[in-house]
Structures are given as structure tokens and as C-alpha cells.
Design brief:
696 residues; seven-stranded mixed sheet; 21 helices; 29 strands
């Protein structure tokens, strides 16, 4: 193990524990995913075993985005969780695009997703392995598995219309109705399915459905569709296919082909886990052929009395009776279990029932793979090495919407300036806003991982994560967002001097910079008040004739205001003051005049004009999804553009450089529009949580 790997594991051990970490640690301790072979790429287990070696990765997770939109802050939690757990437990996280719907997918989204994951600080390359995959890589295998389900009687072609299927699905309180096409023979279903594959049937005219139970209390098990016809060109496979697997069918297959040990997703997939398991367990003969053949040998030995685990196995099978489906062999097995139920399970295997039990298993093994997955735990846990799904609470953040449909609507209607608008909750938007990957990682870690749904995280928590990161990493600068001219009347005409300013007042190691000062300066409009509010300590000239209070120009001199000028509309456009030469910062007289306030400033001779983009929250209510129309609560004043000034070194900085403009907030040079000739800065976050009240 390398020093870095050791450090990663030690770092992971110090992170807050959660139920997923506990599951992983238990699985590693119990060896629940061993022996596991890996041939360097996804494949059914026959190939893994034939060409591979014992998998060096202790666990394998995956991040599986659909390329039908940009990643958002909710995805950040999944990214950090999946890639982070893999790193902490000396494993591997795969990057996989679930590109099963060519109608909504685009290469633009693929490229953006990859860049966002890398920006977040993660990679899918591990040594010589490049674990970048696509669901479309497995379409050939998925088709074979679908044919297997048809041949074994667990899938059928349904020609009902979408409305008929919906009407016959039933409700939470009423069972569904069997399709009139449900009892077609496997041979007829196979013939029609191949015609679907060959493009001989119109789009929408039929689907392939799993044959499970239309009366199941879990609606997701009421014969869900697993393939549909789509005459659409796929960005990876072109026009090779005109039938595409449904996501719920493709997802578990992708996981097991990739040797994923822990398939981690959000709680809305909780009800889908039953179908996830059903799909994998039913295709075991072709997905996990070596283990399937091993299972048949073990059963034969048990039936012949050569394996003393036979009774324990039969009891385990009895206790897993809920795994039985509706095929004839399974119905027959249920009858055997019914006769055993009087004694709470088999007490002996001698006699008719024991022989019938093993005879059914041996003659119809392919019908009992779900039962075997449970009962063969007496041999080893997770006998068929199937992937398992675990669900965690999704991120619920106030003042945002995370629905892709709604985000797309905002973009298409021009209500925001694209996917990377700094007001958007997308990762590209947050990055452009000025967020750092470190801040997002810390935010996600602080949100925690649990099985408890709900629980809103206030947007201010996200903002605070950025403040905490930038407080120690962002250099300080002066920037004037709403400029007001300040003239020092007693400062010599034509004089200019250089002042040394720290880049960070608490971090001398970050060095210093030199700024210039002359007679005319720029200050913030709010730093002068003709009629000051109570407690105001900045520049003002008392109306009662009492002397004006001195104010410190940060890193410079103390000044005393003397007069001001107004324009025709009555707006203050210029303030005049005298400076006190003996009070220069860093000199012996710096403290000779006491002040109660310090303001920032820029030299009017050298300051560079800049555009400031000030942002507020995109919605006016904490939970915009709860509104009848989320657009009704859109904050139409969430963006304000101001023309101000910055230091020359800010103008010359590279795009995506973050600064704290002292007394104003944290800003970032825009990643797209900023240049030395035309500086553009985005407000990342205010210095305090109350900044939004004064954004204008």
C-alpha cells in the first residue's frame, strides 16, 4: 500500500460514521463480496473468472448520472459519497453514464458532467484502470438477459396502449389487472421481441414487461416495462438499436457487470430495490454462470446426502419463501413450504417432502435463483456475488429547485443566463459563482448521510461553507462596487505614493502588495451619509456645526470630511476631506488620532473600471417546489449589475481567481467574461449572512 493510500484510509477513519460506512465495514469484515474476480473491464462473470484475477479493489462504487442535464448541488452529495467512500476504503469508484434514453441525452451534457466531477476533485482513473463506462456499452448483454427472461417465462411483450397499462396498473389500495397478452408462450414472446429489435413494429405499439405480480403491494413489481421501442439515434451506438432498456432494468445489470459492491442511491429508489434484486436474481444463469453451475453441484450433493448443510439450506429456503414467483415450479414449491409451515420449517429431509423439495430445485433450478441467493447463505453470503442497492437521504436545500425539468425550463425560457448562471444550483453555476470544490465537499460532509427523508438544509449553511473556505485562502483586495469620488483637498497636486498592504491580515506568509495613493480616490457610496442613521461612524458632516469625526483610510491615512457636492438631482457625487499626514499606517503617528471606523478606497489614477455582478437567491420562498407554479416565486431581482473599480492586479488576474474585497464580500473573476481589459467579478458570498438585505 502506498503512503497516499494509507493516508486516505486514515483520513476516512476520522470522518463521521454513518449507516453506509457501517455496512461497508461489516461487508469487508464478513467477506460478503468475496471471492470476486476482475478482468479489467465489465463483463458477465464467466469472462471475469476466465480472464481476471482477484479484484484488488476492496469495494467498488459508482456515480451514474444520466446525460440529460447538468449536475447540480444534489449530485455533489452523491459524487462525494461514492468517490469518497471508494477512496476511504481502498476501493474504486466508476464513472458511468446511464445513457438509456437517446431522446433526451446529448454529448454536451456528457462533457459537462465529466468536467464537473473532475473539478470536484475526483477521477475515475485508478492506476492502469480507466473506469469510465456507459450503459450503452452493455446493450448487447442487456438484450441477451431480456431474452433469457422471455425464455424462462419471466417477461412478455405487451401490446396494450400506455393508457390501458396505466389504467390496469391498479392503485395503492387496489391490485392491478393482468394484461390480456400476459399468458403468451415464451416462443411467441421471443418472436415478437425480435421483431421489435428488427424495427418491424411502430414506436409506442408495444413494450417488453417483466412478469412478476400484478397484485403486489409494491406497485413497482406490477409487471414493470423493461424495454421500449425508440426510433432515435443514440450518441454512442448510432442506429444499431431501435429498442432501449428502461433505466430500472439497466441499472442493476450495469452494477453487476461492473462488479459494483455497493450501489448507493437516493431514497426515492427505495421502492425500486425490490425490482433491482428481482432482475439480478432472475438472470443469474447468464449473468453469474460459474456461480450458478456451482449452485447446481451443491444442490446435487445435498440431494444425494453428500453435504451435511442440506437441512440448514432447506430451512433457509423455507424462510425465504417470499422470493417465490408465480411460475408453476414456484407454485409447487410454495405448496411444499405450506406443508412444512405446521412445524415452522422442515425438521428432517427424509421422506416425500424432502425429496420433492430437491427434485423441484434440480429440475427447475433457473426458476429458483432468487430463492438460492437467500438460502445458499449457509454456504457463503451473497452466493451469486450480486450487487446490492443502498439508499440515503437526498439533499434538500432551501431557495432552490433541483428538478431537471424545472432547471431546463429556467434555461429555455431565458429566465437565467444559461446552465452556468451563478444563481443556478448547478455545479457549473456554483463554480462560476465562486464556490470551491473544497467548500462543497465540506458542505456535503456536514449535511450527513442517513435513511431519514426530509430535513431541509438552509441555503445559509451552503454560503457559510464558502465563507469558511475563502476566509483562509482568499487574498484581500480593495474593490469599490458603488463608487463615490473622494478628494483630499490638502493632498499635494500631482503627488502619488506607494503603500504596502498585506494580502491577508492574519496570514503574513501570503505576502504583501503595493498600491498607489493620490489626491483623488474612489470610496463606497455608503461610506458617506449626508443624514447619518443612528450609530453611523463613517464619513459625515454634522449639520449642527460640530466638528466632523475622523475616519481611517484602510492601510493609509486618517481623514476628516470637510464638504460635499451634489448633482442636479440632489445626489451626492463628491466628498471633500483633509488628510492628516502624521497618521500614515505603519508609522509612529499612526495611532495619534483615534478613529471609530476604517473604510476602503482606490486610487482614482490607477483603479481599473470593472463590472460587478451582485447575486441574491433565485427564489423568494424557502421551498419553491411547494408553490403552485414555481415561476411565481422566482426572484426577478436576483441579479444586479454595477460599474465600479478594482485594483490593477485584480484586473490582471486570471479568470476564476477569488478575492475578499474588504468590507464588501468574496468575489471571483468571471470564468468566461473576465479579462484585463474588461474585468468582470461575481459576488460569491457576502461577509455575513445578512448581506442579501443590502445587495443593492
Amino acid at each position: 500500500m502506498t503512503d497516499k493510500e494509507t493516508a486516505d484510509i486514515e483520513a476516512g477513519a476520522t470522518r463521521p460514521t454513518n449507516f453506509i460506512r457501517q455496512i461497508i465495514e461489516n461487508d469487508l469484515e464478513q467477506g460478503n463480496n468475496l471471492p470476486r474476480y476482475w478482468c479489467g473491464h465489465p463483463a458477465p462473470y464467466s469472462e471475469q473468472l476466465q480472464k481476471g484475477e482477484p479484484d484488488w479493489a476492496r469495494i467498488r462504487t459508482r456515480f451514474p448520472p444520466e446525460p440529460n442535464g447538468y449536475l447540480h448541488i444534489g449530485h455533489a452529495k452523491s459524487i462525494c459519497l461514492n468517490f469518497g467512500l471508494a477512496a476511504d476504503y481502498k476501493g474504486v469508484c466508476h464513472m458511468r453514464f446511464d445513457d438509456t434514453n437517446p431522446v433526451k441525452e446529448d454529448q454536451e451534457y456528457v462533457d459537462a458532467i465529466k468536467e464537473s466531477v473532475r473539478w470536484m476533485g475526483f477521477d475515475w482513473k485508478h492506476g492502469t484502470e480507466d473506469n469510465l463506462y456507459h450503459a450503452s456499452d452493455y446493450f448487447d448483454w442487456m438484450y441477451q438477459f431480456a431474452e433469457h427472461l422471455i425464455k424462462t417465462g419471466y417477461a412478455y411483450v405487451d401490446e396494450q396502449s400506455a393508457d390501458e397499462m396505466r389504467a390496469n396498473r391498479g392503485t395503492l389500495f387496489e391490485p392491478g389487472k393482468n394484461s390480456p397478452y400476459r399468458d403468451r408462450s415464451p416462443e411467441e414472446n421471443l418472436r415478437i421481441f425480435r421483431e421489435m429489435r428488427d424495427g418491424k413494429h411502430p414506436e409506442g405499439s408495444m413494450v417488453l414487461r417483466a412478469k412478476i405480480d400484478m397484485a403486489s403491494p409494491n406497485i413497482n413489481l406490477r409487471d414493470p416495462a423493461i424495454y421500449r421501442i425508440r426510433f432515435a439515434e443514440h450518441q454512442s451506438t448510432g442506429n444499431k438499436w431501435c429498442i432501449y432498456p428502461m433505466y430500472t432494468f439497466a441499472h442493476p445489470i450495469e452494477d453487476s457487470l461492473e462488479n459494483i459492491t455497493h450501489s448507493i442511491c437516493t431514497l426515492e429508489f427505495d421502492d425500486q430495490r425490490a425490482f433491482y434484486d428481482w432482475a439480478l436474481e432472475r438472470i443469474v444463469p447468464v449473468l453469474r454462470t460459474p456461480q450458478y453451475e456451482e449452485a447446481k453441484r451443491i444442490i446435487a450433493d445435498m440431494a444425494a446426502g453428500k453435504d451435511d448443510r442440506a437441512l440448514a439450506f432447506a430451512r433457509a429456503a423455507f424462510n425465504a419463501a417470499d422470493k417465490l414467483g408465480q411460475s408453476e415450479p414456484e407454485v409447487a414449491m410454495r405448496e411444499i413450504f405450506g406443508r412444512w409451515s405446521a412445524t415452522g420449517g422442515p425438521e428432517t429431509l427424509e421422506g416425500t417432502e424432502g425429496k420433492s423439495f430437491f427434485t423441484l430445485l434440480q429440475m427447475n433450478t433457473e426458476n429458483f435463483t432468487p430463492l438460492l441467493q437467500s438460502a445458499l447463505s449457509v454456504v457463503r453470503n451473497n452466493f451469486f456475488l450480486l450487487s446490492h442497492q443502498y439508499e440515503f437521504n437526498r439533499l434538500s436545500l432551501t431557495y432552490v429547485v433541483l428538478s431537471k425539468r424545472k432547471l431546463i425550463s429556467l434555461v429555455q425560457q431565458g429566465l437565467v443566463d444559461g446552465w452556468d448562471d451563478p444563481r443556478m444550483p448547478t455545479l457549473v453555476g456554483l463554480r462560476r459563482r465562486g464556490y470551491t470544490a473544497a467548500a462543497l465537499q465540506k458542505f456535503v460532509e456536514n449535511c450527513g448521510v442517513s435513511r431519514v427523508a426530509g430535513g431541509w438544509i438552509d441555503y445559509s449553511v451552503l454560503e457559510q461553507s464558502l465563507r469558511e473556505d475563502l476566509e483562509s485562502t482568499a487574498e484581500r483586495r480593495a474593490g469599490v462596487v458603488h463608487p463615490l469620488k473622494l478628494i483630499l483637498d490638502n493632498y499635494p497636486e500631482g503627488k502619488s505614493e506607494e503603500l504596502v498592504c498585506p494580502n491577508h491580515p492574519q496570514k503574513p506568509e501570503m505576502g504583501t502588495r503595493t498600491v498607489t495613493m493620490s489626491r483623488e480616490l474612489w470610496i463606497e457610496q455608503e461610506d458617506f451619509a449626508e443624514v447619518p442613521p443612528k450609530g453611523y461612524r463613517r464619513l459625515t458632516i454634522p449639520a449642527d456645526g460640530t466638528p466632523a469625526k475622523p475616519v481611517r483610510l484602510r492601510n493609509s491615512y486618517v481623514i476628516v470630511p470637510t464638504s460635499f457636492e451634489k448633482d442636479a438631482e440632489g445626489n451626492v457625487v463628491c466628498v471633500h476631506a483633509d488628510y492628516l499626514p502624521e497618521t500614515k499606517s505603519g508609522t509612529a503617528g499612526a495611532d495619534s488620532v483615534k478613529t471609530k471606523a476604517a473604510i476602503h478606497w482606490l486610487d482614482a489614477k490607477t483603479a481599473v473600471p470593472a463590472q460587478f455582478r451582485m447575486y441574491d437567491r433565485l427564489f423568494t420562498v424557502p421551498q419553491p417546489d411547494s408553490a403552485e407554479d414555481f415561476l411565481d416565486v422566482l426572484n426577478r431581482d436576483s441579479k444586479f449589475v454595477s460599474q465600479g473599480f478594482v485594483e490593477p492586479n485584480v484586473a490582471a488576474a486570471a479568470p476564476e481567481t477569488r478575492y475578499q474585497f474588504e468590507r464588501v464580500g468574496y468575489f471571483v473573476t468571471d470564468i468566461k467574461d473576465h479579462s484585463a481589459e474588461h474585468p468582470v467579478l461575481n459576488l460569491a458570498v457576502g461577509l455575513r449572512d445578512s448581506w442579501g438585505k443590502n445587495a443593492k
